[in-house]
UniProtKB/TrEMBL annotation:
It comes from Actinomycetospora termitidis. Residues 11-108 form the Pyrroline-5-carboxylate reductase catalytic N-terminal domain. The keyword Oxidoreductase applies. Gene3D superfamilies: NAD(P)-binding Rossmann-like Domain. SUPFAM superfamilies: NAD(P)-binding Rossmann-fold domains. It comes from the Bacteria. The lineage of its organism: Bacteria, Bacillati, Actinomycetota, Actinomycetes, Pseudonocardiales. Residues 112-144 are annotated as: Disordered. InterPro entries: NAD(P)-bd_dom_sf, P5C_Rdtase_cat_N, STEAP_metalloreductase. Keywords: Oxidoreductase. This is NAD(P)-binding domain-containing protein.
């Protein structure tokens, strides 16, 4: 049986962690004692978010970096970018994501005032963007 991993020994990177979904997860993980790297297309935006997240959690567990550095330095990487940029973002990060545990929370959805709606131009169909990095055979769960 695989041994359980102590999550507090891991660094989790959040691609697009400057957005609402990434922030919500990052704050909770940081409070649980996990080290976080907030990723962004712009390192300075990520650093500003990380500073705010540290203040909100009362921890020093969170730093910021551009998405490629975030992916390279983390053990576990969460994709939390909009559907429209999902494929391009992941395709550009194939190399830094090798060997990482990859979590994808991106949905082909947008939101109107009251409810989720299909993302523009996608008709609600999931495009397999995660295949840019995710293995078809999960193996040990890491990106090959
Ligand atoms: N599974 C679930 O339960 C669940 C729930 C809610 C949301 N979601 C999914 O989580 C994802 C993120 O949601 P969100 O509301 O946090 O999204 P968001 O705020 O619109 O975007 C998140 C971040 O993505 C980056 N981004 C924006 N446009 C981009 C582009 N063209 N290329 C690359 N990066 C871009 C931005 O960061 P920078 O400008 O700093 O790069 C932004 O802060 C969505 O795909 C949504 O469907 C899932």
């Amino acid at each position: 049986m695989t041994e359980a991993i102590d999550p507090t020994t891991l660094t989790v990177g959040v691609l697009g962690g400057t957005g609402a979904q990434g922030k919500g997860l990052a704050l909770r993980w940081a409070k649980a004692g996990i080290r976080l790297i907030i990723g962004s297309r712009a390192a300075e935006r990520a650093e500003a978010s990380a500073a705010e997240h540290c203040q909100l959690t009362g921890t020093e567990n969170i730093t910021g970096a551009d998405n490629a550095t975030c992916a390279a330095q983390a053990d576990v990487v969460l994709a939390a970018v909009p559907w429209e940029s999902h494929a391009d973002t992941l395709t550009g990060l194939v190399e830094p994501l090798r060997g990482k545990i990859f979590i994808d929370c991106v949905n082909p959805l947008g939101f109107d005032k009251n409810r989720p709606v299909p993302a523009p131009g996608r008709g609600g169909q999931r495009r397999p963007a995660g295949r840019a990095v995710a293995p078809r055979d999960p193996g040990d769960g890491r990106v090959p």
